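Give me structure tokens for this 255-residue protein.
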Amino acid sequence: MIAANQMERRFGATRALDGLSFTVERGELFGLVGADGAGKTTAIRALAGLIALDSGRAEIAGRDAAAGSPELRESLGLVPQQASLYPDLSVTENLRFFARLFCLPRSVFRERSERLLDITRLGPFSSRRADALSGGMYKKLALACALLHRPEVLLLDEPTVGVDPVSRRELWALLHEFVHDGMTVLLSTPYMDEAERCHRVALVHQGRLLLAGEPSALLAELAGAAGQKDASPSFETLFLARLEQADREASAGHA
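Here you go.
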């Protein structure tokens, strides 16, 4: 459902994507994990068709993301890092606005908005302005707006950043519910511990893929490589060790 094939993108002298490749299967929850500046946001923007690649290809459901076809837009939901909601509109008014963008009939909007307000627990706050919502509630409203047209693929750029622990847990519960219903979800996160919540995860550094796979398999592999077969190291510890290794290799290559 999602295919990144040797994606390259520069911004001046900065190489944001350096041959990044990965795939995401239908009904999979896939995590792009990496520090700030790793290239996660650029990758998601390229997959959403918001920026052009210098080389390589980004595909959503077999369609070239760069083409920006109506079929692709209808199959895709996007929650950017800075969610583009209207702060002076209420929860319901924001939902209604996004419904009109997708030309949803009133009856369809009524049914879907009620469902989304229920599962995000925003129903009691439907008349509250977006700028009066908490960080977690704001992210859930952005998620609801992106889901109104029932996309096949959902892209989320660091959806849990700035969210309190309770709302963070609720957001993950929602994502797993959507995936259980057949949706394909790709999200980026700087939090290494969130890797364990994904079906598969990719560690990205300086626009390159360092490793990818199922969390349990990666944890066992990295623990073994670190000589910690009898210990239970965290993803953060092991991923940071892999990042440090990549930096040492890069320094040695420039020497």
